[in-house]
Amino acid sequence: MKFKKRTEQVQILVPPDFTPEIQKIEHRLDPLTGSRCLINIKRSQRAKQAERLARPLDEIAFGTAPGCYFCPEHIQTATPRFPEDICLGGRISKGESTLFPNLFAFGGYHAVATISRKHFLNIDEFTPRMIEDNLTVCIEWMRAVHRKTPRAAWPVYVWNHMPPSGASMVHPHTQALVRTMPTAMQERLLKRSAAYHRRKGRSFWEELIETERKSGERFIGENDSLAILASFAPRGFREIQLIFHEPSNLAELGEKQIADLASAVISVLKGYRAMGVGSFNLNVFSGPIGQTLEYYPLNAKMISRPYPQGVYSSDTGPFERLQDEWVIETLPEDVANRMRPFFR
């Protein structure tokens, strides 16, 4: 497997003495999708007028608690319910998680599932049990949806934590969807994985894990169910990949696999917290329910987002939104080095 990158150097004269400075820029290609990123580590050191000393997140979150629909005292009366043919009682609950319909859906089947009863948690305060229970209620709902509507076969699981990630609610929650068509990225990953398998006679993902494990540059750790590594050509800061050995789709995860995923996510969050992260995205890329694909295992990505505060510098600009090229300020190899201690 080849990891393609091109390096260029830029010389500028830096004030106040206008001494020469050389900056290195790396242009990387994702080995499966061909997605492009450019990495200039010096950018992370640049002055950002919008950023000041960050307030503790619990202070920021405190003002959003009164009247929160997701808090225990409101959730039963302020959130919608599914029809009984989806789930008895209209909601699914386990532990601290409760799943119910999204009021502003992206499609025919779109759910929200709380993670904790507490209105706010720092990212190192989540427990494996919280994540396991949340995944369990989401997967139970996905299976019920697919039984009712077999065409709805494309599961999506998303965790946006805090507003910079796109979350409209501070209270910890995930979103689950079951679509009748794949997302653009699901379709791209599946098509490229199938083409790679036809061309090479083996799974891209198996080869990726083996290659990264052997080189050690971006390999972070693994458990019985999945491998964890830093993406070679990330689309976000501090991007982490979590790659299962099997199955191909989210609905087929068993208890052990759910527990292993939850454990890995908790370790990543502890690493993120140590790096000063306060907001993140997690996205699971699933194959279709009911199909076992030898060329495609279930996988997920996590990325950090800007620290939540009143005014901050966005990590997404015109290059990302309009040019489809991702400007990254965190070197994947450094991210892997800093994350490994949390997987020992």
Structure description:
By secondary structure, the chain is of the alpha+beta class. It contains 8 helices and 14 strands. The chain has helices spanning 57-62, 72-78, 128-148, 184-200, 204-215, 255-274, 318-321, 332-339; strands at residues 5-14, 19-29, 36-39, 92-94, 97-101, 110-114, 154-161, 173-179, 219-222, 226-230, 237-244, 279-285, 299-305, 325-328. A hairpin with a 3-residue loop joins strand 9 (219-222) and strand 10 (226-230). Helix 3 packs across helix 6 (255-274).
Lay out the secondary structure.
Layout: E1 5-14, E2 19-29, E3 36-39, H1 57-62, H2 72-78, E4 92-94, E5 97-101, E6 110-114, H3 128-148, E7 154-161, E8 173-179, H4 184-200, H5 204-215, E9 219-222, E10 226-230, E11 237-244, H6 255-274, E12 279-285, E13 299-305, H7 318-321, E14 325-328, H8 332-339
Parallel strand pairs: 3-14
Antiparallel strand pairs: 1-2, 2-3, 4-5, 5-6, 6-8, 7-8, 7-12, 9-10, 10-11, 11-13, 12-13
Helix pairs in contact: 3-6
Short description:
It contains 8 helices and 14 strands.
CATH fold description: HIT family, subunit A
Strand content: 25-35%
Query: What is the radius of gyration?
Result: 21 Å
Q: So what's the overall shape?
A: globular
Secondary-structure element order, N to C: EEEHHEEEHEEHHEEEHEEHEH
Query: Could you name the ranges where pLDDT drops below 50 across 5 or more consecutive residues?
Result: 49-53
Number of domains: 1
> What is the CATH C-level name?
Alpha Beta
What is the CATH homologous superfamily assignment? Answer: HIT-like
Q: Please give the count of helices.
A: 8
Report helical residue fraction: 25-40%
**Most strands sheet:** 10 strands, antiparallel
Tell me the quaternary state: single chain
Distance between the terminal alpha carbons, to the nearest Å? 27 Å
Structural class, from helix and strand content? Answer: alpha+beta
Annotation, overall tally of beta strands? 14
